[in-house]
Amino acid sequence: MTAVVVYESQYGNTQRIAEAIARGLGGDARAVHVSAFSPATLEPGALLVVGSPIVGWKPLEGLGAWLDALGPGSLDGVRTAAFDTRVKLFIHGDAAKKIEHALEAAGGQRAADPTWYYVKGTEGPLLDGELEKAEAWGRQLAG
Ligand SMILES: Cc1cc2nc3c(=O)[nH]c(=O)nc-3n(C[C@H](O)[C@H](O)[C@H](O)COP(=O)(O)O)c2cc1C
Question: What PROSITE patterns does this protein map onto (predicted)?
Fold first, then answer.
């Protein structure tokens, strides 16, 4: 199974989560920055995981533009899952659900519900245990 974790990250926390998910997925799974990944390379049956920090209640701009550029049907037959990183605020908005919505609009089939990982402050670090949680999520997606 081809599995790719596409991410954008300002301070490195989302990148670390993406790499942990890829480790959990195992095999040839890899984490790739959004600027270096074309969805046209995905074959039906592949797994595409996409993640971003929440910035102003939505995904980062580069990832948002990448999602906007996905044509209808461009992810037909591709399994998809989404995550975000966020701070533990009472009101934090959401990016993962917006990402999953865009992936499904392009034809992706949801492999898991959107999920999220916490950072302690804007620049991080990640809360204790989040990398382990991400790796376990990757193992679950691979299974
Ligand atoms: C301009 C800005 C806006 C942000 N807005 C939110 C927000 O609406 N909700 C939230 O939970 N976190 C927000 N954050 C915190 C980010 O989610 C946090 O910086 C991010 O998870 C770190 O990931 P990164 O290291 O991959 O960039 C914001 C951060 C910045 C810099």
Answer: FLAVODOXIN, FLAVODOXIN_LIKE
Q: What is the pTM of this model?
A: 0.98
CB distance 98 to ligand 1 below 6 Å: no
Compute, in angstroms, the gap from residue 102 CA to the centroid of ligand 1.
Answer: 20
Range of the domain at 107: 3-142
Distance in Å, CA 28 to ligand 1 centroid: 30
Q: Tell me the pLDDT of the chain (143 aa) as tens digits.
A: 799 999 999 999 999 999 999 999 999 999 999 999 999 999 999 999 999 999 999 999 999 999 999 999 999 999 999 999 999 887 878 999 999 999 999 999 999 999 999 999 999 999 999 999 999 999 999 98
Ligand 1 centroid, distance to 31 Cα (angstroms): 20
Q: Give how many domains the chain has, as a whole number.
A: 1
Query: Which two structure tokens, joined as six digits, stand for 92?
Result: 């934090």
C-beta of 12 in contact with ligand 1 (< 6 A): yes
* Alpha helical stretches, state H, 1-129: 13-25, 61-68, 96-105
